[in-house]
Write a structure and sequence with these properties.
alpha/beta, 8 strands, 41% helix, 15% strand
């Protein structure tokens, strides 16, 4: 049984707690947050504390906090030579204070507290600075995910950057599409089957091969028509930028 202490109360911390609760190999011994009200709902299920000096001993301490808070929180931990990992995609393992053994336990997924998720399908990027710590972290990852693997710092940074494109930027494109449809009284929901089919394609072919549309065909007439229909300068700029990117990718 791997004992764990979770520090933080955001989306990642909440989903990690729920995932660990379903595992027979993990025991969440304590949950820390500086504001207990944020984790009040769980106080009857796990020991909670807002006092770092009261942290219990555990095999792994997981800093599920914002990127900017990792270094400061790790420096405030009142112990040494224990195993401390963070859950950030863009922060180095070296940002964890060196008084403890350091690592990364990064779930590559988007999380919302109210949205259920199958954690077994979440890729976990694992990294340790001490080689002998890796088996423990691998065992912890494998207890909740079928996709826990060793990922070095450079690989994790590239994955995090790419994730911004496929998740954050794509979601903003959905928002632009919603604004376009709403401007004419059309229903955004009618686009959802297309969104799902587009996402499904990359499971079977490369994004390069999956590309379709007027930019790939270099259909200048349709492109001109679309640009004329856009009465929002911001939307027009996005359309032009992505159209040019697709053209260059496909030699148009």
């Amino acid at each position: 049984m791997i004992s764990v202490v979770i520090l933080g109360a955001g989306n990642v911390a909440t989903h990690l707690y729920k995932a660990f609760q379903t595992s027979e190999n993990v025991s969440v011994k304590q949950w820390y947050n500086r504001n207990l009200k944020s984790i009040e709902f769980y106080k009857n299920k796990v020991e909670t504390t807002d006092d770092l000096s009261q942290l219990t001993e555990a095999d792994v301490y997981i800093l599920a906090v914002s990127d900017d808070a990792v270094a400061k929180l790790s420096s405030q931990l009142p112990f040494e030579n224990r195993f401390v990992v963070h859950t950030s995609g863009s922060v180095s393992a070296y940002d964890v204070d060196k008084k403890n053994r350091r690592g990364v336990f990064y779930p590559l997924q988007t999380f919302s507290k109210s949205a259920p998720i199958d954690f077994s399908e979440v890729p976990l990027c694992l990294e340790t600075l001490v080689r002998t710590d890796y088996p423990l972290l691998k065992k912890l990852g494998a207890s909740v995910s079928d996709h826990a693997r060793r990922v070095n710092s450079d690989q994790r940074a590239s994955l995090h950057l790419a994730a911004v494109f496929v998740n954050n930027f794509t979601n903003q494109i959905y928002r632009v599409a919603q604004e376009i449809t709403e401007s004419q009284g059309a229903e955004f929901d009618m686009l959802k089957p297309l969104i799902l089919e587009t996402a499904k394609k990359v499971h079977h072919m490369s994004p390069y091969k999956a590309q379709t549309g007027p930019a790939k065909r270099n259909d200048k007439k349709t492109i001109k028509k679309h640009l004329k229909a856009l009465d929002n300068e911001h939307h027009e700029a996005i359309y032009k930028l992505l159209t040019e990117s697709i053209r260059k990718t496909h030699g148009r």
